[in-house]
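Before a colleague's protein record goes any further, I have to sign it off. I want your independent view on whether this chain really folds as the tokens say. The record follows directly below this note.
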Amino acid sequence: MEQDMQYVVQLALKKKQILDKAPLQYMIRAALAGLYIGFVIVVCFKAGEFFRAAHSPAAYVVAAALFGIALILIMYGDAELFTGNTMYFTVAMMRRAATPADTLRNWAACYGGNTIGALLFACLFYATGIFEHIGKDHLLNEVTAVKMNASTLHLFFKAVLCNWLVCLACFLPSRVKGDGAKITLMLLLVFVFFLSGYEHSIANLALFSIALLHPHPDTVSLAGALHNLVPVTLGNIAGGSLFVGMVYQYLSLPLCKQTKEEKMLLAPQAK
């Protein structure tokens, strides 16, 4: 566990170094994450729509099964994702390798870069005309409307659970060997969060940007996007920082001094 935590700190320090020495490079890495998520969202909802149009209950399952590709692109493509950084920098801060100012600066830069990438992809995709004539009942619009009209409290706790899983999908692959095992873990954990209906701030940024630029019902609006993104962003921070970063940092701490009785019990096993 200690070795894994040291690896997390090393990643956070690498991210900090890039932002300090080459901020433009860091912003491009963050923008790539938003772009990659946009690419995959189109695939998810284009594939899912085939099933929805056929009145199949598998529509959302298909979309969920494909979304993990986004995290693979981000992790292997050296992109920077805000939600994962909530965990990395919490651990680094608790270990005094990064300051609160370092953490907030990274989160702000990464979130801003992710937003730029999501908006850029939405504009580029709009220029293709692929979704130019989608119906207002398209799966993309149905899912977006549900997200934009949920209660603030529900959105917050959906976001907490989402980033708990997303940060595990970033952290646990470092504990297994081989790209096949790493990719499988990422796909499965992202599938769990997507199918469960949890809320991911950066994915929502890309989804909402695409939906708002294309034909959509009145239940999809800019006000609805803001209503969603504020509690979802806060919930993602809580989920990644508290339930993964702080929990695993605590679990990595050395055990308290053993009592005399415990030492006697463990002595034969040590031999």
Summary: The chain has a mean pLDDT of 94. The two ends are 24 Å apart (CA to CA).
